[in-house]
Write the C-alpha cells for this entry.
Amino acid sequence: MTDERKVSADVQKALPTAVILDRDYRNARGRYVALLLVTARELRDIHSPAVCLPGSGWQTRSDELVAQDGFRITARVMAARDAPFHVWFWYPSVPFPEPTHPLVRRLYRWRLTAPGTYRPDTLADLSSSLMVRVITPDRPGALDDVRSFVHTLEPVLRDLTARPGAVPHGPLQGHDERRSLREPQRGR
C-alpha cells in the first residue's frame, strides 16, 4: 500500500525549482518506510536532512556511512519527540549542468574538489541533483526493513537516473513504482 503526501505551499515556495515525491510504503504486516525524493533545477533547492531535520528539532543518536547497492549512504538513528527513527539519505549521481559563467564555474569546480569541504553526511553532493531519504521507526527488524527497501529501490533509482531528462523534471515520471517497490523481501 502506498500513501502519498502533498508538498505544502510553504515548502514549494521555499524550494521553487524542487520536484518532491513524499510517500509511505506499507507492507502486508503494516510496517512502513517513508520515501522522500527531492530533485531540482537549482542546487539551492536540494536540502540535506543533516541540516533540515536537526533544524526541525530532530536529535542524532548514531551516525555512520554505509555502502549498499553502489550507494554511499548516511545512516543515522535520529529522534523526534524522543521517538527514534532510522534515517538514511544519499545523493545518487545525477549531474547538474556545469555553470556557464566563468567565475561561478571555477567556484563550482573548487567546491567539488577542495579538501575537507565535501562531507556526504552534511552537505548535498554538488555534482548531484537528486536527494533520496528513507525513514522508518526504530523497532525490532527496522534496520532489515530499511536495507531491504533500499535494495528494492536501487534498480528504480538506476533506471530513473539513466533516463535522459527524467531528473530534474519529475522523479518516477512514467515509472510504475508499484511494480518495482514491492513489500521488502527478507534475505537480500
Remarks:
- Residues 2-180 form one domain.
